[in-house]
Amino acid sequence: MSNFYDKGNLEKSFNSCDVVSIPVVSCGDLSGIGLISLVKYLTKNKDKKIILFTNKAFFDDLCDFMDCDLDIPTFDSSKGYGIVDINCNFGLEVLGKPDYKVGKFSYECFIESLKFVEERNSKFYLTLPINKYLISKSIGKKFLGHTTFLEERYCKDISMNFFDGFYLLNLLSHHIPIKDVSDQITFEKLNLSLESIIYLANIFGIKPLKIAILGLNPHAGEGGSIGSEEELIIKPFIEYARSNYSYVELFGPLSPDSAYFNLKALDIRAVISLYHDQFLSIMKSLSFPRIIEINIGLPFLRCTLAHGVGYSVAKDPKRVDEGGLELIFDFYENFIRFTTNSF
Description:
This protein is an alpha/beta fold. The chain has two domains: 1-158 and 297-343, no CATH class; 159-292, 3-Layer(aba) Sandwich (Isopropylmalate Dehydrogenase), CATH 3.40.718.10. It is 42% helix and 14% strand. It has helices spanning 7-14, 34-44, 56-65, 100-120, 132-139, 146-154, 181-184, 187-204, 229-244, 259-266, 276-287, 323-341; strands at 24-26, 51-54, 82-85, 124-127, 159-163, 168-171, 210-214, 249-254, 270-273, 292-296, 301-305. An eleven-stranded mixed sheet has the order 3-2-1-4-11-10-5-6-9-7-8, sandwiched between helices. Helix 4 crosses helix 5. Residues 1-17 have low confidence and may be disordered.
């Protein structure tokens, strides 16, 4: 698979000076650390251009509070970047304090930025962390997060992937109860996971392309004595994939309890995990908070930081790590190069 997107649309996008190639950013929960980490990153990388949906006065006051020399203008279509100023009725007093009005504002910025992405055919969308509970309470309906919202909006499965600078992880199933995971293990979903991780591995330049698929049951089923998913579905899929993706070295199903050590021994950096916490917990133990989430399967790439709002450190920006944003913007640059070189 040479390109995840429609080639004609991308060729039009990246051969123009339109805003489609500039990252669109939703500010997330302003009581937390998302915008703080963005300010820290942009202060060190002033050549980066973004289209940021937030309140400009809040952003400017935050820069002053952090003693950061950063001036981003109000968005201007002729320039193609800047802050899309959204009105709010609070200031820096909300830092570190969960607040319903901040939750509602984060939702408004998300919706307005998503409309912008759709209308302008933007190709790279960054959503900073939000508080799902506060949004749900403030808008009067259940909000289960960006990924679930986008899946429902586009009526399709979204590929959920994580990267920590070394390991690339795909989750076959997302935010579902453990008891429902087995039903999600199908040839179709395994193939979607495999194609997704191949696409991202090409963008990141992961070579040689070795991919491990984890088992579901203890000891990867022990030949069918503990569960049947490995024997009936996963092993036959691996044989199928080896025949149809000859340029990929596939390993598995690996026993989850020793997967990390096997990955190191076999020099494997790409992993397909069958449920949310199966390998992500290991990644977070190794690399937190420098982990990013990447969603593909949408008309655009969507990225976010793989950590929460971080209220406890929001009042002390020196404690906030911007390493996740370094990974996201490096990925963005790789994505642009990969896309333009595909033509």
